[in-house]
Amino acid sequence: MRTMVPKLLSGVLVLAVLLSAGLAGASDAQYKDAAKKWVETEFQPSTLSKAEQMKEMAWFTKAAAPFRGMEIKVVSETIPTHEYESKVLAKAFYEITGIKVTHDLIQEGDVIEKLQIQMQSGENVFDAYVNDSDLIGTHYRYGHVVNLTDWMAGEGKDVTLPTLDIDDFMGKSFTTGPDGKLYQMPDQQFANLYWFRYDWFNRADFKKAFKAKYGYELGVPVNWSAYEDIAEFFSEDVREIDGKAIYGHMDYGKKAPDLGWRFTDAWLSMAGAGDKGIPNGKPVDEWGIRVDGCRPVGASVSRGGATNGPAAKYALRKYMDWLRKYAPPGALGMDFYQSLPSLAKGNVAQQIFWYTAFTASMVEEGTPVVNADGTPKWRMAPSPHGPYWEKGQKLGYQDCGSWTLMKSTPVDRRKAAWLFAQFCVAKTTSLKKAHVGLTPIRDSDIRDKSFTERAPKLGGLVEFYRSPARVAWTPTGTNVPDYPKLAQLWWQNIGEAVAGEVTVSTAMDNLAKEQDKILIRLERAGVQGECGPKMNPEKDEEYWLNKAGSPKAKLANEKPQGETVQYDDLIKAWREGRAN
């Protein structure tokens, strides 16, 4: 609705009237006043000067002019970063551009479902999606999403921010297809890292008792053998601190979609199931899928894959053993969301696989895991690797939630949504957003002095993202040709093993076979072009296990000597720009 505003109204009163009646008819001066208010009161700190911020905001106001009065809908999963975008940045964008945004927050599985509906129906469900870059292989092959490289240079050039600085995004490589084109724009990212009680690990009595029993120092575990020893030590030897039962491990085991992500988020790569290669193993990735060039050729060992190889079966077996032996009561029946508060209770010594997206909730003053001065009693460090892992392999997972535009979205709505997407990651807004959600996307942001000052209270997050180690933590790669279809197989099959319905070996054999069935269907359908699956014929498993690389033959000893490193030495290496 266009609004006529009497000239005698000015300043704050003008803004109030505009906000109550709609901003479509506001003047450039009024949008500028709104931008100044947000730059002064909310968008600090920033790597830009206030003058540079105002210049960026003026660009948004001008570029949005053809779309004023439009209402668009975008969607993302529910994490603190996206809550900030939905509640704060959408409001700011409306006041500065006149475009109203409804930013829906739903669970990750629901985001994927909505995306599938739009891909399959061609109907415009949402104008833009923040979905994980795990879908890069899907998006590249099916052709339903907009190639952003060509979009920014062509049809979307008039709505592409000149100061966007794509090369500043740490996750750019994760959202780039095999053709070198950008298909998604990073919005937030977080890694799964090792989490531990720094205060307990530095207790002289614990250090002495651990070394006496295991023959090496208590410290950050480098391998799974050490992790298992530490879990056993705290659960069975220490058992209690200050009259409170404590546990050496934390995880979750409920049969639900997030149990699958627990594994596709690189659990097998940590064990060492895949091949060497960053960001993902080639030819065999962390899902156990082998490719020939860009064509998936199989997941089963009989086709050269590794989903049911010895390393994968070892990984699932260890997950189940640790969950039953060393985790708090009830962990087996928890899902991802129910398990999150457990570490903040202060009764767990370590977790091998913890998402840094939840750092914000772990630094709240007054909780059992935070000191009186606001510094954490815990730290984060690289996750340990299993016995099949080799130097040069990825070590863990990094989520990269990224803005994705669909070809089925009308161009005018797509342009308006692209403006909001850029608004959420522009240098004017990105540093403040990074401090709120602690999911940094820009290298310039994580190196800002404001993060240097805050680093002591973030338990190693800043040091990790400033170090070269961050590149060894990567999302699902381009080997996976249909993430939505394949991902659902994982929790169903692994859930059966966790529930005791089938053996570990049967569960992984079934998973590999079912993945192959989907790859075969995709090959027959021929809908994925020159990078679609082209399956290898089945052969005796020994044919592949006797070859170099993945799938890897069973090791005679799956529990080598435990190895640890002292955290203070590790953090020193990160600060000096070394990976280890």
Automatic annotation (TrEMBL):
Signal peptide stretch: 1-26
InterPro entries, alphabetized: ABC_tp_sb (IPR014597), Bact_solute-bd_prot1 (IPR050490), SBP (IPR006059)
Molecular-function GO terms, alphabetical: transmembrane transporter activity
UniProt-annotated location(s): Periplasm
Keyword Acyltransferase among record annotations: no
PANTHER family named in the record: ARABINOSE-BINDING PROTEIN-RELATED, POLYGALACTURONAN_RHAMNOGALACTURONAN-BINDING PROTEIN YTCQ
Record protein name field: Extracellular solute-binding protein family 1
